[in-house]
């Protein structure tokens, strides 16, 4: 085993063969820093013996990456060995760095129910930062904002030649967003006096990147392409995504047991923002028919998986990343049709990239506006910002009836834009 374990090494660690916890010591290059690996959790812990013994749990992997655990442990030892000794858990306000603030920030994110994907994204953004930036006092990053400007440029340059689609801009932007979010937390939640943003000089948006959207006028051509897809579950998944405006992660994880036809909704348990953002999606007749066709096909193609998932696939539920690379076989489609719906042939002529996922979510919003639905109502139906809509609203309250009516108008607008295909409505 290497002297210092990496995040990839930690992912591979397992408990003992009999299932009991296994403790890994002296593998991170910091005295007293160890990792307890059990069946469910991998926990970083710092222990010290002697005249002033202490024991502190630093957090769980992967929410806290190896680099953050090492940085936190080193800071604790620095405070422990200082003369006079300083409290190891509480750096002075003017001594906080990105490295010391990260565990506090991550603990707050976990308490707020943020998803594992969010935690992993912030951990990756932290790992991209240089050690110099991680250990500078937060106030210094505010006093000299060229520090983060140069850091973001360094991250972009380091990835510029890696054949990435956005030439490193996405990675650089993600790190800048992470630093901004961490500063906001330390100011609003941890009580630090931090005025302004250390990334105010950074370019946070790639102006060359266009947000794909499926326009109402292009939906009929898009539907023509979708009909060429051989997998009928994929066809129904794409249609349901357009009819509902659901995000990819929410769509693929819909379960059969969460469908409530009596109240005309399906519970969306996986939502952006964590469990507290879970909501009940209002169903219209075209949506219900789409779910019925998908379940019927699932029972025939993947009978075991179809018992659990609304959109069954080979490995359980269908994977959202499959929805953007559609196999059309050797069918030849009109080039004008392909251009309208954003289809681009790849080297393999049997594959095309079809507008899907967030482009369809934006298409839902476009169709909703075309149907005359108020923007505030559209926001509620897309679960933007507000808490989830309870199913009882659909059947009993004035708000529920209004939202159901709006959802029906949107579905009708989309079906009309698709060319009124037989059987969808």
Summarize the model shown:
The chain is an alpha+beta fold.
Structural description of this entry:
Helix content is 45%, strand content 11%. By secondary structure, the protein is α+β, with helices and mostly antiparallel strands. It folds into 2 domains: 7-188, 2-Layer Sandwich (Double Stranded RNA Binding Domain); 216-417, Intergrase catalytic core (hpI Integrase, Chain A), CATH 1.10.443. It has a 4-stranded antiparallel beta sheet with strand order 1-2-3-4, covered by helices on one side. Strands 5-6-7 form a 3-stranded antiparallel beta sheet. A 3-stranded antiparallel beta sheet has the order 10-12-11, with no helix packed on it. Helix 3 crosses helix 8. The longest helix is centred in the middle third of the chain and has 20 residues, at 169-188. It is elongated and about 80 Å long. The termini are far apart. Mean pLDDT is 78; it is low at 329-333, 345-350 and 386-392.
What is the residue-averaged pLDDT? 78
Order of helices and strands: HEEEEHHHHHHHHHHEEEHHEEEHEEHHHH
Provide the β-strand percentage band: 5-15%
Low-confidence region ranges: 329-333, 345-350, 386-392
State the helix count: 18
Tally of structural domains: 2
Query: What is the CATH architecture term of the largest domain?
Result: Orthogonal Bundle
Overview features:
single chain, 425 residues, alpha+beta, Double Stranded RNA Binding Domain, hpI Integrase, Chain A, 2 domains, 4-stranded antiparallel beta sheet, 18 helices, 12 strands, 11% strand
């Amino acid at each position: 085993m290497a002297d210092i374990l990496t995040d990839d090494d930690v992912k591979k660690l397992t408990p003992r063969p009999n299932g009991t916890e296994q403790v890994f010591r002296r593998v991170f290059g910091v005295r007293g820093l160890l990792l307890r690996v059990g069946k469910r959790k991998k926990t970083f812990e710092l222990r010290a013996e002697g005249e002033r013994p202490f024991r502190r749990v630093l957090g769980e992997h992967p929410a806290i990456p190896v680099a953050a655990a090492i940085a936190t442990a080193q800071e604790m030892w620095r405070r422990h060995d200082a003369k006079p000794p300083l409290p190891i858990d509480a750096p002075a306000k003017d001594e906080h760095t990105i490295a010391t603030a990260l565990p506090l920030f991550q603990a707050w994110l976990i308490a707020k129910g943020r998803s594992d994907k969010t935690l992993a994204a912030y951990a990756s953004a932290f790992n991209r930062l240089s050690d110099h930036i991680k250990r500078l006092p937060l106030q210094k990053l505010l006093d000299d904002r060229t520090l983060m400007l140069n850091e973001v440029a360094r991250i972009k340059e380091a990835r510029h030649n890696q054949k990435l689609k956005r030439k490193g801009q996405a990675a650089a932007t993600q790190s800048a967003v992470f630093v901004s979010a961490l500063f906001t937390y330390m100011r609003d939640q941890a009580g630090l006096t931090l005025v302004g943003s250390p990334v105010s000089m950074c370019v946070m948006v790639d102006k060359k990147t266009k947000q794909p959207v499926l326009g109402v006028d292009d939906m009929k051509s898009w539907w023509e392409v979708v009909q060429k897809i051989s997998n009928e579950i994929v066809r129904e998944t794409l249609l349901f995504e357009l009819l509902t405006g659901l995000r990819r992660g929410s769509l693929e994880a819909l379960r059969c047991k969460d469908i409530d036809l009596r109240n005309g909704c399906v519970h969306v348990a996986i939502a952006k923002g964590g469990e507290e953002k879970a909501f009940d999606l209002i169903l219209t007749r075209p949506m219900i028919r789409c779910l019925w066709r998908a379940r019927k096909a699932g029972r025939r193609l993947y009978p075991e998986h179809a018992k659990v998932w609304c959109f069954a696939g080979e490995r359980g539920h269908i994977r959202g990343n499959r929805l953007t690379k559609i196999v059309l076989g050797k069918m030849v489609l009109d080039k004008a049709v392909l251009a309208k719906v954003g289809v681009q042939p790849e080297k393999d002529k049997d594959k095309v990239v079809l507008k899907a996922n967030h482009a369809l979510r934006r298409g839902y919003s476009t169709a909703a506006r075309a149907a005359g639905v108020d923007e505030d109502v559209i926001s509620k139906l897309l679960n933007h910002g507000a808490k989830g809509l309870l199913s009882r609203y659909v059947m009993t309250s004035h708000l529920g009836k209004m939202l159901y009516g709006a959802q029906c108008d949107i579905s009708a607008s989309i079906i009309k834009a698709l060319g009124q295909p037989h059987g969808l409505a």
